[in-house]
Amino acid sequence: MQESTVQTDGLTSPEVVFLGTGTSVGVPSLGCDCEVCTSTDPRNQRTRCSILFRLPNGNLLVDTPPDMRTQLLREKIPLIHAVLFTHEHVDHLYGLDDLRLFPFRLGHGMPLYCEPQVEARIRRVYDYAFSDRKPTHPGSTPQLDIVSIGHEPFEVLGTRVVPIPLKHGPYFDVLGFRVGNFAYCTDTNDVPEASLERLMGVETLVIDALRYAPHPTHFCVDEALEVIAKVKPKQAYLTHICHDLDHAKAQAKLPEGVYLAYDGLRVPLPG
Ligand SMILES: [Zn+2]
Ligand SMILES: [Zn+2]
Ligand SMILES: [Zn+2]
Known about the structure:
Elements: E1 15-20, E2 50-55, E3 58-62, H1 68-74, E4 82-84, H2 90-93, H3 102-106, E5 110-114, H4 116-125, E6 144-148, E7 154-156, E8 159-168, E9 172-179, E10 182-185, H5 193-199, E11 204-208, H6 221-231, E12 235-239, H7 247-253, E13 258-260, E14 266-268
Parallel strand pairs: 3-4, 4-5, 5-6, 10-11, 11-12, 12-13
Antiparallel strand pairs: 1-2, 1-14, 2-3, 7-8, 8-9, 9-10
Bound molecules: zinc ion (ZN) (3 copies).
């Protein structure tokens, strides 16, 4: 078994792995026989949204979607050192239990960096992880170490993380995250002015773009392009994509420097 001091296997320079790039129901969507859901292009197979920062001091996961276990197996990621949460929606949280094995290798609970409303949901849904009952055997419940965050920058695995407060429809405030000159902003339909300022200077911006038609809680493609035009990153990637976008056809219509993300895509982490 790998020692916790062995941080990342064969990492030559920091990178970001797109573990999942699909909307909440995934693509293909159950029961749908549309052109995209039946496509043989692997870039049209989108699991639920998550990225992984492969940093010099460890693997920093963003969100624990229901597909997390298969995503980590697919990308041959042997260990997660800490998790950041954007928000508490099912498609971003409900794979959490599958982190259960990693505390054995880490020698401590899994650090979960999240806002209070996400913590409240975790404590409700995974109440058995916080029970006073003596465990029957090691690993019988997840060991979770919650670290409360707000809107101030913080450090995790020796890396500075800047939260980007975002609106996600009328009822949800979520966080994007900036690490160096890379920013990840999924599940949003509004970037407040102060948050736009926090994005300025990024070289790589990942942003929500659900579909072509407007949506009450997600950016559509044109709205995402408007944000990209304001931030002016060197390159931008669209994520949280539904089955309305065929990868090849949608990519052909995007401006220069804007790309559709896809599951398994790896990009360098700009310093
Ligand atoms: Zn989502
Ligand atoms: Zn479909
Ligand atoms: Zn959401």
